[in-house]
């Protein structure tokens, strides 16, 4: 909690609330937090995006996922250290504000909000297209409208209901992957189904080797793999509403390695052992291709349902996250005061409502100009997502330095190997951004960044001129830390 938050009052109450309360209801239990963490690491990036990555790198994509998985674990442990120092729903936006300055907090909060608005637009629209698999007569806009309104309604009822829905969304994804792994193992070891005669672990190196496109081809897929993990940091946003954050959040973060190992690396090893990597194409789900090769007629329909669930899960998380980010900005004077209001159920309905309105507008625009209108904006979502990771790592490095000097209390959940692991993760993200500039397919992701930076820069100067106190650098961060420590003891 910054000193600005400690001193500033909004509507007669503490601007940020206590670190343990913040005005929210702690309705997310261990079971829900664990599945939200799992769901954040499993999305359309795996179910659909992996097809393009496989076609570019072959079996070596397994190594790419393993390396990126290590980087993601470094990021999540850095976030975990910050969360145990001060578990707040503003999460990395709040940490950037405290350790990197008001401007960085402002940029991070609004950028992450944009990330989820854009993601919500694309995921709801994608879900509407998946419905047409079963009934092409249903207009895409109608399905998108129904999904958006339904998810918004759920987010207005209670945080517990949001967590419960996300739990079952994640359960569907987890069950599908485990089922695919078990079926694939049966095909490989027992030889049943149409793929039984050719399925073998030797497919991992017999079709042109483990690096059929060379090491360069594998390196160029790292950006695709990184995108698949976007939203894994969402568990940090739940900190302000977790029933026992100091117990639940470390458990969720420590499960990242085995989640990546099982759901990504394990699934890809099995899929690429059942079906030759040469079969996969961009835009085609590797799970669908594998089921077709095995000869299960219902496989495509099952995967379509799972992908639909993954899209709705992402949209649901987006609605949850946007309201919390807008409220955090508003509490710090960096957004409209209207967003500070909570419903009687402790929900930021105004922030969520405005965000959903923008998602609805996006669905309408996508209906009018399908395909082209969102290319630039959608690709920008990947950059904005990685910006959050960069801010997490930089904030953790600054926090650790202050803690080591005795200026702040030490976290109960230190990132192992820090600062070296955080520096490694930062360097890796930098390398991926450079490769995005080299790759014509990914370069468009970088074009929108200067425009967004200009919008934020001008907005920051205007808001700072109107309310300089909210953008003043905290005079004594330790004051906020002490207040937070006392709140944590009470919680």
UniProtKB/TrEMBL annotation:
The lineage of its organism: Bacteria, Bacillati, Actinomycetota, Actinomycetes, Kitasatosporales. Keywords: Amino-acid transport, Cell membrane, Membrane, Transmembrane, Transmembrane helix, Transport. Residues 1-11 have a biased composition (Basic and acidic residues). This is Amino acid permease. Pfam families: AA_permease. The chain crosses the membrane at residues 35-54, 60-79, 99-121, 141-162, 174-195, 215-239, 260-280, 300-320, 347-367, 373-397, 418-438, 444-463. GO terms for biological process: amino acid transport; transmembrane transport. It is a multi-pass membrane protein. It is found in: Cell membrane. Its main location: membrane. InterPro entries: AA-permease/SLC12A_dom (IPR004841), Amino_acid_permease_CS (IPR004840). One of its GO terms (cellular component) is plasma membrane. It comes from Streptomyces rimosus subsp. rimosus (strain ATCC 10970 / DSM 40260 / JCM 4667 / NRRL 2234). PANTHER family: D-SERINE_D-ALANINE_GLYCINE TRANSPORTER, GABA PERMEASE. Belongs to the amino acid-polyamine-organocation (APC) superfamily. Amino acid transporter (AAT) (TC 2.A.3.1) family. Residues 33-464 form the Amino acid permease/ SLC12A domain. Residues 1-22 are annotated as: Disordered.
């Amino acid at each position: 909690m910054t000193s600005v938050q400690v001193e500033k009052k909004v509507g007669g109450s503490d601007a940020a609330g206590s670190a343990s309360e913040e005005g929210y209801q702690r309705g997310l239990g261990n079971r829900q937090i664990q599945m939200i963490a799992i769901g954040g690491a499993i999305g359309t990036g795996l179910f659909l995006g992996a097809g393009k990555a496989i076609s570019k790198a072959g079996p070596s994509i397994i190594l790419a996922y393993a390396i990126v998985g290590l980087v993601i674990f470094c990021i999540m442990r850095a976030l975990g250290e910050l969360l145990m120092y001060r578990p707040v729903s503003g999460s990395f936006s709040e940490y950037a504000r405290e350790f990197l300055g008001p401007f960085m907090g402002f940029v991070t909060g609004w950028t992450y909000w944009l990330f989820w608005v854009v993601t919500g637009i694309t995921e709801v629209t994608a879900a509407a297209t998946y419905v047409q698999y079963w009934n092409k007569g249903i207009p895409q806009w109608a399905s998108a409208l129904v999904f958006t309104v339904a998810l918004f309604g759920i987010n207005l009822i209670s945080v517990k209901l949001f967590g419960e829905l996300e739990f079952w969304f994640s359960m569907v994804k987890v069950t599908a992957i485990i089922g695919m792994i078990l079926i694939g193992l049966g095909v490989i070891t027992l030889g049943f189904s149409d793929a039984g005669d050719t399925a073998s672990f030797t497919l991992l190196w017999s079709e042109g080797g483990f690096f059929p496109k060379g090491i360069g081809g594998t390196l160029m897929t790292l950006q695709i793999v990184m995108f698949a993990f976007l939203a894994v940091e969402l568990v940090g946003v739940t900190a302000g509403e977790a029933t026992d954050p100091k117990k639940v959040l470390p458990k969720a973060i420590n499960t990242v390695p085995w989640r990546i190992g099982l759901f990504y690396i394990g699934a890809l090893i099995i899929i690429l052992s059942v079906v030759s990597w040469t079969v996969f194409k961009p835009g085609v789900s590797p799970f669908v291709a594998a089921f077709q090769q095995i000869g299960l007629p219902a496989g495509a329909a099952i995967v379509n349902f799972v992908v639909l669930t993954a899209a709705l899960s992402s949209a649901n998380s987006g609605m949850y996250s946007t309201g919390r980010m807008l409220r955090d900005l508003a509490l710090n004077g960096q957004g409209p005061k209207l967003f500070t209001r909570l419903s009687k159920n402790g929900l930021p309905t105004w922030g969520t409502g405005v965000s959903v309105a923008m998602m609805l507008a996006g669905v309408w625009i996508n209906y009018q100009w399908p395909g082209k209108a969102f290319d630039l904006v959608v690709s920008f979502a990947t950059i904005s997502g990685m910006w959050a990771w960069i801010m997490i790592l930089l904030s953790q490095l600054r926090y650790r330095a202050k803690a080591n000097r005795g200026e702040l209390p030490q976290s109960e959940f230190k990132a192992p190997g820090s600062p070296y692991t955080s520096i490694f993760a930062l360097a890796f993200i930098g390398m991926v951004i450079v490769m995005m500039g080299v790759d014509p397919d990914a370069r468009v992701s970088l074009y929108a960044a200067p425009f967004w930076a200009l919008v934020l820069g001008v907005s920051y100067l205007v808001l700072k001129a109107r309310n300089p106190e909210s953008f003043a650098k905290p005079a004594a961060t330790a004051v906020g830390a002490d207040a937070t420590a006392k709140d944590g003891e009470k919680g």
